Structure formats: structure tokens, C-alpha cells
Amino acid sequence: MENPFEIILERLDRIEKAIKNLNVGETKAPVDELFDIAQVASYLKITKSTIYKLTSTSEIPHYKNGHKLYFKKSDINEWIFSKRIKTCDDIEKEALEYLRRNPKKFK
């Protein structure tokens, strides 16, 4: 007859291995990359003085801790891509949609 403690220990070992295998697949949420003034200037390919101007007028998203400025890469990307210029086709589609929704205004 087998020792019940040995059976329990074997089962515990299998459970531990199974748990370790489950944890291997887990990934932590990526940490947003943090830029300082020089890094964001380099990333945007503009001068540091331009970055200072953009922060002083609150045009660019940033964080301030004491006298240090910080920028989240995701905020910078979102800010850049929110400045999209509409094409002529985009403007024409909007105009046609506006006319379709408001036909009485233009009769």
C-alpha cells in the first residue's frame, strides 16, 4: 500500500507545475514609454525650444514634476494623429452629407 503522504506530495507537485505553466502565458500590460524634453524633440524631429513653446501654450500633452517635463509616447502619438488634414474628397463627402440632412435650407 502506498504512503498517502507521497500521493499528496506528488499531486501537489503536479498542481504547482500546472500553475507555473498558466503563469508563463500571462503578459503584463505594456508600460507606456516616457519621454523627456530631448527625447520628444528627437521623436518629433523638432527643436527643444519648439517643444517648450508648445508646452507653455498647452498645445502638446505633457506632465510636469517640479521643473521637469515628461511626455507619454501614446499621448504624443494621439496628439499627432488628431491633426489630420481633410482631403478634398473628405470635404466634399461632408458637404454632400450636410446638404442631404438639411435640404430645406438650400431651396
TrEMBL record:
Pfam families: HTH_17. This is Transcriptional regulator, AlpA family. It comes from the Bacteria. Residues 34-80 form the Helix-turn-helix domain. Transmembrane segments: none annotated. GO terms for molecular function: DNA binding. SUPFAM superfamilies: Putative DNA-binding domain.
